[in-house]
TrEMBL record, chains A, B, C, D:
One of its GO terms (molecular function) is voltage-gated potassium channel activity. The lineage of its organism: Bacteria, Bacillati, Actinomycetota, Actinomycetes, Kitasatosporales. It comes from the Bacteria. GO terms for biological process: action potential. It is a multi-pass membrane protein. Pfam families: Ion_trans_2. This is Two pore domain potassium channel family protein. Gene3D superfamilies: 1.10.287.70, Voltage-gated potassium channels. Chain C.
């Protein structure tokens, strides 16, 4: 993904405001779910903020597309972003807008190369837990035989799901809630894999340091270099004995 | 498994039609379970398609056996395929036919070397989830105290099992259903292992790139090469001073 | 664990009969649990077989101790075996005898170096599942509010525990049953770790083959060797031009 | 974390008494929970011991801070310890005191470099299981619809949580209990990762030993060294034929 200067400059300059908007989206998404008895005005404001944030990320996608030198390639490598831009226009469901915005934020965060992998994964896990809890709560609260009715239950359920503990004291009962749950489970497996892989890589990098064979090689190469240096000295002595013009490595480089 | 040209050519040519038949099998297996109030004609058609697909794969096994140069060795290394060909003839149970066909398809997909490991694993996971859900549904639906009665419940249960979350809101109660569940659990553990191993291998391959000892070695070898080149220059100067015929590496190679 | 010939010879010769006895123990342990309405004679026979097998392994331990050259060291490195030999004498409980015999069999199998790691782990997993199911069944069957009453339930529960799925439809309620369950859980975690590690090691060994830096080094060393060979040719030409006695590597070696 | 002698000497000398105090804390924390009908005097004694142990670790932190040469750096790298020292002064809750003392003990144990990683992890797991069980028991016992009422249930629940089995026969119902449970789950995931990583690192270190490419390199370097030695012999022969002063490597080093 070697991308051109104009696009890169845009991405750097818009990074901070976009992440600020992402935080605003989180608040606007949480308020009507956590505080269901709020004014209709508050609810409308939140919906407006959601649309605005999604719009800003959609605009960012279009600007990056215009600034890209190879547009066809940009569309191909960013097809997920394109879906996230188009989908809420076709089906203006709240959950779809959530997924679309999260996708756009996530893809944008991957571009920001300053962000390290650990920060990215940590942010993704916290974000998934938070939005997963809220989305399942909003879906399951209205289900007659649902058992996730408060924010506390929803967060607790998210944790038991993502760590694959799965007590079963709370579990989604609607189709939509279960689709969200599957997303959390798969993220949990990926998280577990990442944690393990990280520890394993750290362990193994320590083992590598002590690689016996490599040390022996380094010693062999050093001994060989010493041998060649001695040989050069002998040859130099040989040629010094007779009036021959010779040049050292340094002299030849000039 | 060094196999001979004739066999390889057959395997390449029949690959696509066989995978088309595998898709047909999936449909034929799903229809009577998802749509239990269907005509007896539909049911009979599905059974016929199932037998036909199994037959095609059994035939493929026999042709490959005939084309193999070392037949005894082929039978030994493909004994699982042989079981899958013979079993449905002894016990014409629907579940056995499913397992046999899945085995034959899976073994055949491993031969197709163009398919990459990730695709193979992904396909296996999706296939196991789909057929696992359908098989458990067909087994548990008729159980008096079963709790997996709809396709939605079966798919949901498959996901909670394969990710080892295991809420316990739905669980098989019959012996056959539990055997299928154990299969899903073991696949889930293998899947988790694969995901972790993949991430770990990727992490470690990045660490490898930064191997400090190796870089030091490369630098040492480069310095040594420079030293030897300088030595050659000196020896050349030495011999140039006197009328001696000498040849460079390139000249000697001619 | 460098052990002396006499001991090794004993271990090799007694290996097969001891594993045969281990199989007899499995049968003798299973029969009274699976078939509780059996004769008192059958039960007494089974108890006798259990004691006999344990006795054979205890005897094997003593013979190996006597044959060991450094006895103090043998006792120190085999203290677990010593416990397993002594414990059933102090507390002749059936469960304790099971654990002791399993320990002795397991330690003995580790000595048999012909058995590969995968076989050993596979055997341990199957053994733990089988004996775990039987032991929990025998403990929980008599518990008033227990829910593991049949062999099928016990095996099913073992699988859901060892794969860490844990539906919770069946779970031990007595202290002893829960201690057995904890053992199964920990084995399950170890099993998961082994599967993952095995796959990861295989993946990484494939990555290693393609190590870019190492290939570059090999090429650099080869180029250097070619350079040195050319240099030798030049020096040889230099000395051939004048009547100087020189010797090749081969000649010097004589 | 290169730390200065005075601090290191203090850390070595105080290590044993501090770990003795940690054991005393464990007893003082456990007694009022396991034995709730105890005298008020016993309870007061336990509270006093808890405060005393926390105080000793707080004092140890301050002494190490004073002995540190770069104090600002010490505070920055030990900010978690600082929180653990300050928090119980602000909010003298029992649970907070537990978490603070555990943190201080854990951080102190990391300094003790004699303790190996495996011992550290093992100790952490056992400690988390023990204190997790006790803390959840003390929190859930008073909850009206709680289901963790005895020490046995609490320990059993801890194991099912930490191994991510999660039967759901016992699960915390209060907010505080659930926060503790989340801590146990995350520790469980870390534990699983550590076990897997350990096994994987061991497997891979065995693979490394057999690295084919490296062996080939070592052989190539050895052959090259032999070649250079032969060359030196020839050059020496060349110069011996004429009265030229030359010096060996050893002579030049003097």
């Amino acid at each position: 993904m070697k991308e051109r200067p104009a696009q890169v400059r845009w991405e750097r300059r818009t990074q901070r405001p976009l992440f600020g908007l992402a935080a605003a989206f989180a608040v606007a998404y949480a308020v009507p779910i956590v505080w269901p008895e709020a004014d209709r005005g508050v609810e409308r404001l939140c919906t407006a903020v959601e649309w605005a944030v999604w719009g800003a990320f959609a605009l960012d996608y279009l600007v990056r597309l215009l600034l890209a030198e190879e547009r066809a390639r940009f569309v191909r490598t960013h097809w997920l972003d394109l879906c996230a831009v188009v989908l809420p226009l076709i089906q203006p469901l709240r959950l779809l807008r959530l997924v679309s915005t999260l996708l756009l934020v996530g893809q944008r965060a991957r571009v920001a190369s300053q962000i390290r992998l650990t920060t990215y994964v940590g942010g993704a896990v916290v974000g998934l837990l938070m939005f997963g809890s809220l989305a399942v709560l909003s879906v399951e609260r209205d289900s007659p035989n649902g058992n996730i009715k408060t924010l506390g239950d929803a967060v607790w359920w998210s944790f038991t799901t993502m760590t694959t503990v799965g007590y079963g004291d709370h579990a989604p009962t609607t189709g939509l809630g279960r689709m969200l749950a599957v997303g959390l489970m798969l993220s949990g497996i990926a998280l577990l894999g990442l944690v393990t892989a990280n520890i394993a890589a750290w362990f193994i990098s320590r083992f590598e340091m002590d690689d016996v064979e490599e040390r022996r090689q380094t010693a062999a190469i050093a001994a060989l270099a010493e041998e060649v240096r001695a040989l050069r000295a002998e040859v130099a002595a040989l040629s010094d004995a007779r009036p021959v013009v010779h040049s050292s490595v340094e002299e030849r480089r000039r």
